Inverse folding.
């Protein structure tokens, strides 16, 4: 079945460590996104990529890094520079480049907890 | 920049109608969306409305759009306990990515 797969679902990290969250899609979508969700704050955009080998900062990019070497993959690294990394991270993709409605398709999320 | 506002919480009784409201500041949205999030899961698209429409009905869901007041609402008829979730409105300004509201937690009491 087509969809977006995020892994791991749960991740624990010690302070000072970098961690990488995986996001893979087999929907043949050009655009991919990373959002962060905190209680009562909705979703905030971290990074997005509209084409392979290109990505842009969102509203809260500090302390995060991404790469887009393949169309189907958009991993997010949470670095030790991120001051408050404990959150629920959501990856999404869209066929925006194809002139569709712009609907985002979401993965099931990854919950990161810093100990 | 874009700003999307929602109330945080709504409680209704099973069988009643639920109305979730959303206001936004950017008037250039082409599409406006409603997403549903179950606990611990990602978001799923419930419905969307094109900006040149003022109403869209899809089974138990009715979306109303008032462009003049920049107000979007989602009405769920005959609300069931399975409708308990967080509901997000989102707007698409065509610039980069969807902008989401803070989400409204709908609690349905039996």
């Amino acid at each position: 079945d087509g969809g977006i797969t995020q892994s791991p679902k749960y991740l624990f990290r010690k302070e000072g460590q970098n961690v990488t969250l995986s996001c893979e899609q087999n929907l043949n979508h050009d655009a991919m996104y990373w959002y962060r969700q905190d209680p009562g704050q909705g979703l905030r955009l971290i990074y997005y990529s509209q084409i392979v080998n290109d990505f842009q900062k969102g509203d809260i990019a500090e302390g995060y890094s991404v790469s887009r070497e393949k169309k189907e993959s958009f991993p997010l690294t949470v670095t030790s520079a991120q001051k408050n990394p404990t959150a629920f991270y959501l990856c999404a993709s869209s066929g925006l480049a194809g002139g569709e409605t712009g609907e985002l398709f979401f993965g099931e999320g990854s919950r990161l907890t810093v100990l | 920049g874009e700003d999307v506002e929602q109330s945080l919480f709504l409680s209704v009784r099973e069988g009643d109608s639920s109305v979730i409201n959303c206001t936004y500041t950017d008037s250039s949205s082409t599409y406006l969306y409603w997403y549903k999030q179950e606990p611990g899961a990602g978001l799923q698209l419930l419905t969307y409305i094109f900006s040149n429409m003022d109403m869209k009905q899809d089974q138990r869901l009715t979306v109303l759009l008032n462009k003049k007041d920049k107000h979007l609402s989602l009405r769920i008829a005959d609300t069931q306990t399975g409708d308990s979730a967080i509901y997000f409105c989102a707007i698409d300004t065509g610039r980069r990515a969807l902008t989401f509201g803070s989400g409204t937690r709908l609690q349905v009491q039996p």
Notes: The radius of gyration of chain A is 13 Å. Chain A has a mean pLDDT of 91. The longest strand of chain A covers residues 43-51. The interface with chain B takes residues 4, 6, 33, 35, 40-43, 45, 48, 50, 56, 58, 90, 92, 101-109, 111 of chain A (CB under 8 Å).
